[in-house]
Each structure stands twice: as structure tokens, then as C-alpha cells.
Amino acid sequence: MMSDESFRAETRAWLEANCPESMRQPVRSDKDATWGGRNPTYAHPDQKLWMDRMGARGWTVPDWPAAYGGGGLTAAETKILREEMARLKCRNPLNSFGISMLGPALLKYGTEEQKLEHLPKIARGEIRWCQGYSEPNAGSDLAGLQTSADDAGDHFVVNGQKVWTSYADEADWIFCLVRTDKTTKQAGISFLLFDMASEGVSTKPILLISGYSPFCETFFDNVKVPKANLLGTLNKGWDVAKFLLGHEREMISGFGLGGSAGDPLIEAARKGVDPLLRAQIALFDVRSKAFSAMSEKFIDELKAGKAHPAQPSMMKYYGTELNKSRHELLMAAGGSDELEWESEASRHGAAPRAWLRTKANSIEGGTSEIQLNIIAKRILDLPS
Ligand SMILES: Cc1cc2nc3c(=O)[nH]c(=O)nc-3n(C[C@H](O)[C@H](O)[C@H](O)COP(=O)(O)OP(=O)(O)OC[C@H]3O[C@@H](n4cnc5c(N)ncnc54)[C@H](O)[C@@H]3O)c2cc1C
Questions:
Q1: Cβ neighbours of 99 (radius 10 Å)
Q2: 248 has catalytic annotation
Q3: Which of helix, strand or coil describes residue 260?
Q4: Does the C-beta of 134 come closer than 6 Å to ligand 1?
Q5: pLDDT tens for each residue of 104-144
Q6: How far apart are CA 292 and CA 68, in angstroms?
Q7: 369 lines ligand 1 (CB under 6 A)
Q8: How far is CA 285 from CA 155, 256, 259, 271, 280, in A?
Q9: Which of 130, 140, 313, 327 to mutate for ligand 1's pocket (most ligand atoms within 8 Å of CB)?
């Protein structure tokens, strides 16, 4: 087995030779990020090149087993890869709900057939997934969901509506919570995987204050889903759902982390904004570094199976607050120019649109109030 030093040297050399220059810049907008899928769009051709090169090594999911399209790296090697990518400022080669949310749930709850069917396609960015959890009357009270999946022999028939389904209109498949027993609440939920191209699935975008509409209402009208697409046990989907939510919260918590070199916020401070703002940026940077160190510790504990189950709630709460303050500071540092909405120079308002987007960080994946409730109950042991 290769020593960690040799692995670092080899990884560094490979990244230097294979990460295109254009992929060593921060992602500036949603369109600039790589999502893959059956009908992918790329703002720059290097996005595909970078995703394919990393995917071929399994490095879009470095710690997944090689049999499922992963890199088969140890926790230490995965950390080295992350560090070397950060050193070169390499972008994440693939943004994917499949990687950050569904993949871990498939690895834990999937049958061998399901793993072999879905994980390699996720790793190579071939299939884009969306998350069908929330419904018009089931957000924080998620277990109140009503979308039904009725038993029809070898398949289920799904009827109902989801809401706030991010990128449903661009996704290829959905991981979806459905009700398979109407007589009970949590114990009547199942977890289904199905193709968004199935007959009876339709989506309707919801327009946001930023002018974008990455969210949809998603409707199911007698959608046939083979029983083989059930993830985990019938009526025990709530366990899968909660496990996946932990990973979603961990993913969302990472939004707030800025790098040092090349970070627009640090660059702004260097350019000499007013002293008060510089002090606020310095304070943000200290908090961000402390959070980063804590995230490292958390991820190590998670990989070792030693994390407290409520730890993602802590990370989600603090990480999303950080991300909001990061964009407040960016807007303040840019002054009134930063509010420019339509010009080419402003990349069509990338900054104010990103700032507005952060307002949703403390809602998505479970609101801050819900995270604080979880922390109060499960970590501080306060009475409910
Ligand atoms: C950007 C974004 C992306 C999203 N993407 C997806 C997606 O892809 N798929 C998906 O399924 N869903 C998605 N959602 C939905 C998201 O998970 C829900 O919005 C969230 O869980 C909150 O539910 P709700 O909107 O129904 O609010 P509600 O549950 O109605 O909450 C309204 C307010 O009441 C508070 N509240 C509710 N219950 C309590 C309580 N017990 N104690 C204290 N306060 C409480 C909440 O904190 C909140 O402030 C997304 C949401 C956003 C904003």
C-alpha cells in the first residue's frame, strides 16, 4: 500500500496536470456549477472535462468503494485529496444531490442491485437527482406527508404533490417520500426512487425574488413505480429519510466556508474597504476558520462512526448563518455597484442574486428553529 506521503505527491502531480486552469477559480453562479445529468448544460467546456477526468478516477466520490464508481480511498487519503484540491483551488468537479444525499443512503440501505444500478451513474454525473420530501402541508412537520403509494401487485401507484423540489425540472430521477400506510404517521412512510420521465410526473417552476426559479411544484398522477425501487423496508422509510437529512444538513453547512487565497471577501478586505468593514471581515474570517476546523473534526468523527446524531444540526445552523453573513459582507464591500442586476459586467447580477439566495439557507434542509429545537433536546438535553 502506498504511503500517505507518496499518495500526496502523486495526487498533487495528477491534479496539477489534469485540473484545467479555468476550474481553479471559485464557482461564481449556479450555472457555472457542474450538475451533470442526461441533458447537462455547461457554461464552460472545461467543466465536463474536469468532471470526466475526476469521475474516471472515482474522485468525484473518493471514499466510495471502487465497485460502485468511487475512488476506494481511505479516510486519510480522501482528506489529502481534499487538501491538495484546496491548495490548487480546484473546484468541486460535480455538484450532485446524488453524491451529497442519496449516495450515503444507498450505501447504507440499498440492495446490491440498487447500489450497482445507481451509484456508478451518480459518481460519473450521468443521472441528476432531486429530492421529493416537502409537501404543501408537510415541511417542518415532514412526517405529515400525504403523497400516497398504493400497492398494485408488482408496482406502486403514486399520487400527490411535492413542493420546493429544487431543480425538479432538470432532474432525471427523484428520491421521494411516500405514504404506504395511512393509519399511522412516521411508521407509514416509505422511500421510493423513480424516473422523472415516468408517465404522470409533471413539474411547475416557482419564481423567486432573485428572478431565478430553481424550485418546482412536482405533481404525481398515477405514476407506476416498480417495487424493486423501494429503498429500505416498506413503511420504514422514515429511518432512511432521517439518515439522509443528516447528510443534507452536513452538505448545506459547508456553504459558508470561504477559502483564503482568491476568496472575493478577503480580496475586498485587502483592497482597503473602510476600517469597520475590514474588522467585520476579519471577524468573519476567524469564525469561518474555526468552523472549518470544527467541520474537519466532525467529518472525521462521522467517517469513524463516532459523530453525535445531532451534530449535523449544529453544523447546519452555524454554517448557514456564516454563509448569510459572508454574502452580507460581500454586498457591503462592493457598495452600490454590487446591486447591479442586469449588466454583462455584473454577470447579470450574480452577486445580488447569490446574496438573495442565501436568505433561504436557514430554511432549506430544515429551518434554523427546527435545528435549534434538535440541539436543545438531543445535545443540551433540555425538556421539550
Ligand atoms: C432553498 C430551498 C430549497 C429547498 N429544496 C427542497 C428540495 O429540493 N426538496 C424538498 O423536498 N424540499 C425542499 N425545500 C423545502 C424545505 O425543506 C422546507 O421549506 C423546510 O423544511 C421548511 O418547511 P416549510 O417551508 O413547510 O415551513 P414550515 O414548516 O411551515 O415553517 C414555517 C416557520 O415555522 C417555524 N416552525 C415550524 N415548526 C416549528 C416548531 N416545531 N418549532 C419552532 N418553529 C417551528 C419554522 O422554523 C419556520 O420559521 C427547500 C426549501 C428551500 C428554502
A1: 22
A2: yes
A3: coil
A4: yes
A5: 999 999 999 999 999 999 999 999 999 999 999 999 999 99
A6: 29
A7: yes
A8: 52, 11, 9, 16, 9
A9: 140
